[in-house]
Amino acid sequence: MEKDADGFYTAAPAAKKQDEKKPDEKKPDEKKPVEKKPDEEKPDEPAPSTNTELINSTFEVSVTLADQQADSSSPLYSVKTFEELGLHQDLLKGIYDMGFSKPSKIQERALPLLLSNPPTNMIGQSQSGTGKTAAFVLTMLSRVDFSINKPQAVCLAPSRELARQIMSVVIAMGKFTQVQTEYAIKDNLPRNATRITAQIIVGTPGTMIELMRKKVIDVSDVKVFVLDEADNMLDQDGLGDQTLRVKNMLPKSQVQIILFSATFPDHVRAFASKFAPNANKIELQKEELSVDSIRQFYMDCRDAEHKYDILVTLYTLLTIGQSIIFCQHRHTADRISARMTAEGHHVASLHGAKDATERDEIIDRFREGKEKVLITTNVIARGIDILQVNMVVNYDLPLMNERNTTHSDDSRPDVETYIHRIGRTGRFGRKGISVNFVHDRKTWLQMEEIEKQTGKKIMRIETNDIDVMEEKMRKAMK
Ligand SMILES: Nc1ncnc2c1ncn2[C@@H]1O[C@H](COP(=O)(O)OP(=O)(O)OP(=O)(O)O)[C@@H](O)[C@H]1O
Fold it and tell me: Whole-prediction pTM value?
């Protein structure tokens, strides 16, 4: 199969891990109030290594995997082949047609468990960009009886953008099968639709509930229920209620429940075990949560306005590959993009307040590389797989109060969302960098908490000398 313009199935060599240190004495003293941190307060960091090549998204996957074989701790490492995983010939053809030559570690470990009979539930965790989608898509495709024109597999995702992406994988992997598919996302079906006969349905919970309630989706033959970004889908502060309603509409027995995510915070893990009883579990240790191919940085900004100035200064660097800029609020995303556009820069903004058609157009343009810089909110923090994205900027750090609107004063950092946000880059062994903007004591402490919880160093890039800043960034991107 030809690769799409969005370059879904290409890969580049993995980044080498850097052993860099942020001097401890430069962190604010916990006991004393911390002043704003002007750049000159801290010495510069050691320059990152430049001995790797620029990301080349036209490299074939086999190159990446050959590289990865050497490191058995890599989430991309595998000793098995797809043939050994017992997949149907038509699915093998689909996989190879996508350019996959070997399973990744999560695929190697999860697929035998997912495909064994009788079907067993699964709670699977693996870092961002390591191939979880293929694991659950292959399971759905393997379990569907193509001679029956009724829904048999239902997959929920937290955003329409992710649902559309998952569907593109279903279609690509199922290319040599007779699979029929349908979306359950807003404004997709005609209002008078009466019955979906497709075997695999991918959507978001609200629309899925509506279609099941109206019996447009007949659930009686459903045998696989997948939650991608499962911790988010089950979180009572998020989509938990809706997801539970969908589950309660499915047949009580016979349904294999499959939960996948890069993160499973403790409070969700317990609920996940009830939601998917007796599940096989593949879990990550806390220190393994994010991949090492993402190099993390921060920039000291004097105040909120300085954040904007720095972002504008970074513009050329943001467009070397593609970049995603995450903001806390929709209005911030709109305001920054309007201002940058007025100043002659080319950026796009995407958030949940835009209508469905516009959202689809924006993400498609970004996928195709027609937009290089996307300013957005948490709406695309999870799952979105665009291989050319080599930089993520946390213009605002993610906070718990965005997740839980009933606790609007909760300014603790949302570490899970942080892990997912930076995971939009550095996918399947590619290199990527993330940059956090911090501008006062509060944001500094939030970032420090993220660093503590993820166990990964976040290195400083100075902002007081633009040339030095640019130079460092360019090096980091190599
Ligand atoms: N076995 C494989 N060989 C080569 N490329 C692969 C393989 N499996 C997956 N990929 C590619 O790796 C990229 C990341 O995969 P995927 O989107 O499934 O990651 P993920 O684990 O679901 O990430 P996230 O946690 O961000 O949702 C995709 O572009 C996918 O096509």
Answer: 0.85
